[in-house]
Design brief:
single chain, 9 helices, 70% helix
Amino acid sequence: MQESHMSVIRPMRADAVRNRRKILDAANAQITARGPDVGMDEIAQAAGVAVGTLYRHFPTKTDLVAAVVGEYVVAVADDAQASLGRASVGTSRAVDEVVGFLSRVAESSADHHAVKAAAQGLGVEGHGDESDESRASGALAELIALAQADGDIRTEVTVDDLYLLMATAPTDEPAPVRQRWLDLILPGITTPPC
């Protein structure tokens, strides 16, 4: 009789979860502060963990950068869903949530500009987990539909249009330039005031 050797997925120990969090935070901070070429040794030192610990969690720098980018995508999806939630219950106008979302993504992208450069340089494919991308897209589609129903967003505007606009955000420029970008794009997606 042959025994089945099924692998059991065990949850990470608490110290492993803490170490992973420290590594991701340090990677984000170090890449942002020092650029995409920062070394794994420097990231481990900033995280306060041994290099071996870092490599146990992330065997390559590509794996580490992909995880940091993945966290960014989760945050964007969470933000989109929170924006939709506020607009759905009437706490705020849908158009204000669309504008706020675009502004927050531009600011966050500016903070993560070096991480994105590192991801591109390492050939990190995609922008995170597909389910998180779907969550963001779904929430944004509903948010746009609410704003269109209110007559505040042009009827032809789509989620793809928002993604196109976000891709053009001047994330490597100072905050006043990013605000000017937002001021310039808004008339292209919103309806003229009455």
